[in-house]
Amino acid sequence: MNTHYELPLEDAGYSFGFLDEYAKKEVRRCILKAIAIPGYQTPYASREMPMGRGFGTGGLQLTLSLIGADDTLKVIDQGSDDSVNAVNLRQFVQLTCPGVAVTEKTQEATLIQSRHRIPEKALTEQQILVLQVPYPDALVVVEPSEARRKVMHGEADYSRLLVKLYEDVVRFDEITLSHRYPTRINGHYVIDPSPIPRWDVPRLHQSPALVLLGAGREKKIYAVPPYTVAEPLVFDDIAFRVEDFRDTHGRRIACRCCGSTVSFLDELIDDAGKVTHQCSDSAYCEEQQETISARKQA
Ligand SMILES: [Zn+2]
């Protein structure tokens, strides 16, 4: 598969990275503050971008402020490099950052912008992961006032969030949150880790790669710096668990394309109502398939 895109676009006349240098400098300063106070929602002057808020403008501003001509960018949406949102964002970066290489291979990328997933392949110290965030504040479900939420964050008072999780346990015998699982960073601030599935939450813990989260509409940047403690909020007697993808016989379901039994799966239902499963991370799935076919040829 061709992993490098050619765009038939002339020089569009934008400054490198679309944003002006002052805007980029401000975003970078906020990134440094976010790294210095892990999990703290740093306010920043989110710029108008030539796309609707809610389409990844927060992540895009982080990416454009960080990217240099020698970077290699990967953009994914729900694990796929080919979805409309991912393609649009990637083309926009290519248009405004001439010389930047793009890739679908996780290991080749220096900068990865993602919505709803962390790549299946383990990230390294040489990589930065940018996550697009719709709702940056985990406390928003229990407290409508931002001023009060700020005090609660400052005092690390997450008791109401724990009550909310406890209500889940009482009603359903387990915590039913599938996405946006509240996660405590470095023992203090609880973040909304963006709509990644529970499966991805443990990978924030002691991640070698810097993880940056950007909310454009809400004008917030926060970070999980490399090798930082990231713990999902739990109770002593109810452990956090990730999706286990088992069939009715208790067997782990395999991906229908590559046969992987260790990846996060998407459920697909065809017209006849038949349910199948496939890796959510399309680059990972393709690589598994390539490995299998290479092994068969050998
Ligand atoms: Zn697969």
What does this 3D model show about the protein?
It is a single chain. The protein has 298 residues and is an alpha/beta fold. The protein folds into 2 domains: 21-137 and 185-231, 3-Layer(aba) Sandwich (Rossmann fold), CATH 3.40.50.11310; 244-298, no CATH class. The chain has helices spanning 21-36, 57-66, 84-96, 146-154, 159-172, 282-297; strands at 42-43, 72-77, 101-102, 111-115, 128-132, 183-185, 190-191, 210-215, 220-224, 230-232, 265-269, 275-279. The strands form 3 sheets. A 7-stranded mixed β-sheet has the order 1-9-8-5-4-2-3. It has a 3-stranded antiparallel β-sheet with strand order 7-6-10, with no helix packed on it. Helix 3 links the parallel strand 2 (72-77) and strand 3 (101-102). It is globular and about 55 Å long. The two termini are 20 Å apart. The mean pLDDT is 93. Zinc ion binds next to strand 12 and helix 6. Zinc ion (ZN) binds next to strand 12 and helix 6.
